[in-house]
Amino acid sequence: MKKITTICISLIVIGFASSCKKEGCTDSNATNYNSKANKDDGSCTYPNVQKAPDNNSPCGGNTKFCMNYGGTTKSGDAALSQPPGGRYRVYWSTSSGTYEQLELDIYGSSTGVYAIDTAGTPGKAVAEYFHATNGAVKAAYGQVEVTSFDITNGLEGNFTFTMMDSTKVTSGNFYKVN
Questions:
Q1: Integer Cα distance of 8 and 3 in angstroms
Q2: Would you say 128 and 112 are in contact if contact means Cβ atoms under 8 Å apart?
Q3: Residues 173 and 157: beta-carbon distance below 8 Å
Q4: What are the sequence ranges of the domains in the chain?
Q5: pLDDT in tens, 26-76
């Protein structure tokens, strides 16, 4: 009988002790911090913190794309896509005024230098510029250098090439394009 009483008392003490472990958010940095909780239950939530601007772009500020096209500086936001054909496309277009765009197709998925060609050959790059008034023109020769190939945080690199109409494209940069 003494053994049964001891077991019963032990079970009551264990049950009572385990019920004292109040669950909740134990991180004081969380918006739902519970100072009475002594066991974290994974429910912590945090304030929405805006990421500070990254001002390291070679184009200045947070600008993702810039180039000198025939003596005229062009810059702005850019996007990354993966169209069919084993390529990644850095796409820039104007947001106002006369419509212009540049499509820079990289036929590879790593850092390195990609020579310009017009056929979309693996390990190469294709560039095409479009102007609403003047139409489209492809790059004839030159190169694209990808210095960071990170789909999540964005591609980074530079380019220089000559278009088929002999227009020179220099000081080309893309920065954290995703």
A1: 9
A2: no
A3: yes
A4: 2-40, 65-177
A5: 777 777 888 898 887 767 665 554 444 445 678 888 889 999 999 999 999
